[in-house]
Amino acid sequence: MPSSRIIPVILVLVWCASSAQAQNVSVDTRKETSDVEAEAIQAPEQPPTHAFWDRTNVLLFSGVAIFRGLDYASTRNMQARGRKEILLAPEVVNNSAAFASLEAAGAATSVGISYIFHRTGHHKLERWMSISHISVTGFGVVRNYCLVSKHPH
Predict the structure, then answer these.
(1) Domain check: are 125 and 77 in the same one?
(2) Do 63 and 127 belong to one domain?
(3) Which residues of 42-55 are buried (b: 16+ CB within 10 A; e: fewer)?
(4) Is the pTM above the cut of 0.90?
(5) Rounded alpha-carbon distances, angstroms, from residue 99 to 52, 62, 105, 130, 132
(6) Residue 152 domain-assigned (yes or no)
(7) Residue of 68, 65, 67, 49 lying closest to 126 (CA atoms)
(8) pLDDT tens digits for 21-79?
(9) Which of 39, 75, 117, 134 pairs with 56 at a CA distance of 20 to 30 A?
């Protein structure tokens, strides 16, 4: 093994050994404490968590669904005015069922990612996922309606 690879390997081994030693020490000290002391020593209280389907999330998820619907409507309006969709393939955006399914899948994915953030304790990210989704989709809706029509003269 070249000498440039030996140092990282040694560092990893030292870190693993020190981590294992720290775990052994903490287990030994727990065995020595009495029941009275164990009751007095408690883990710090965790901040209260919220239910996933609380009022705030329901409103945020509803906002995501509404803005995905607005995106569908604004894209159809933009196409009716002679503009072309630049982000999606024509096979998808020109097929009503496929485009509506894509919008629904986008909303469901947003809720799913928020749920993952909720389960892993990232509650701020859980909320910001929906907020950012609404913001980006809202920007797209406004952009679609602001584009100038390109009807042939």
Answers:
(1) yes
(2) yes
(3) eeeeeeeeeeeeee
(4) no
(5) 28, 19, 10, 21, 21
(6) no
(7) 49
(8) 545 444 445 555 555 555 556 655 666 688 999 999 999 999 999 999 999 999 999 99
(9) 75
